[in-house]
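Internal tracking record. Fields below are filled automatically when a chain is submitted to the structure queue. Please do not edit lines marked as system-generated. If the sequence contains nonstandard residues, flag them in the REMARKS field before resubmitting.
Queue: standard
Priority: normal
Entity type: single polypeptide chain
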Amino acid sequence: MTDSINHTSPFLVAALYHFVSVPRFESLCAPLQTLCEENGVKGTLLLAHEGINGTIAGRDAGIEMVLAYLRAQPEFTALEHKESRASKMPFLRMKVKLKKEIVTMGIENIDPNKVVGTYVMPQDWNALISDPDTIVIDTRNDYETAIGTFRGAVDPKTKTFREFPEWVRQNTGLHNKPKIAMYCTGGIRCEKATAFMKEQGFEEVYHLKGGILKYLEEVPQEESLWDGACFVFDERVSVEHGLKEGEHKLCHACRNPITADEIASPLYEEGVSCSSCYHTRTEDDRLRYRQRQLQIALAKKRGQKHIGT
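SYSTEM-GENERATED OUTPUT FOLLOWS
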């Protein structure tokens, strides 16, 4: 952790993943759900045969309890996590889910424990992506790249991670330079993306260890090659250098991040539409969203949180 992280914010956010064979993953679901709830921890954890992935938030003691429990399991003794802070609880509930993959690429037999790219520490990342022999690829989706990216990076403009393999197959120009450098939010997508690239015949494949989050934590802003904010999958919406909370809000109709300028747009209606989704939704959709927004407002007036779809 760096001094730039605001330690006075009351909630600790822990992002984690670990690829490892877990044949008994189903048996971990219920006790993990109970432990989180008993310790006031919220967020999402995904369990699968291939490991664990997720982000959780809570008071420091609660997060420490959950992490200690996980590391006490023989499969997760080497589990690493990344920390940031939040001024308010960034999740509405706790969900422990059983999945086929802990990050969904949809390609069989991709195993980062068998083949993966070369890890690059945040302090060495600038030199790699500034090398003219390197193609830099952002493996995130279009709504994430829209608010921030590394300078000179190629944006595949994917809607989901499932689209990434086909994008690689269609872009033969990726073979024009000897080095491929890849990055994502916390590192997990690059585990599978680099494994896939290696299997496609790319030899020099690198990825940013700890992802954008670790880079923003450790690399001083005056040395940074990152422009914008980093989208995160919780109510903070985005974080910036030093992992301080960003200024983006979330359109609860399309789940895209929006800026203050977009909120000022005549196409924006809280919980109903924004400039990104207005023309892709029907009037029936907007009527339904308005009803949901009304229920949220009523719950807030009662001092409650509305937990809905």
